[in-house]
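Cross-check.
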Amino acid sequence: MCKGLAALPHTCLERAKDIKTKLGTLLQKPESAFDLIIPYPEKQQKTIKTPKPSIEEALQWRESLDKLLENSYGLTAFRSFLKSEFSEENVEFWVACEDYKKIKSPAKLALKAKKIYEEYIQTEAPREVNIDHFTKAVTLKNLVEPSASSFDLAQKKIHALMEKDSLPRFLRSDLYLELIE
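Predicted model, tokenized:
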């Protein structure tokens, strides 16, 4: 049983995070009554083996967050680190925005925009990222007519936050330090 915040074991924190995500999902209005009866199974993520970077490549990640995010192993390691800290929503939002920019079909763009907004931007979203009200308002306004740049301001704010906060912690982590030994 989970007791006291100071001594929360990882399993309790994981359980709390899982409950928060499930509650967020349950509180969303289903598209139809059919969605309530037959839930869709969650997609299994494919694990892709990426080659371990050279020490020189890993050392370049200290120069900028972009160098880390451009490297598939670096991105995977960064995601893993943030998951261990229960703060992966920022990098997941950043990746979702990158994927969003690649969509060509206006109909698919609008659907993905709605999904990203509901998952990361709207107040009380299941994986809400920490952006100011002005950025939320600009993003919502941009979604009236979705374009590849609809999330640019929010993505830049999250990028800056990760560069200032998450990247320095990652660079001090055992996960990173083992790569450069």
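The chain has ten helices and no strands. The two ends are 39 Å apart (CA to CA). Passed to J.P. for a second look.
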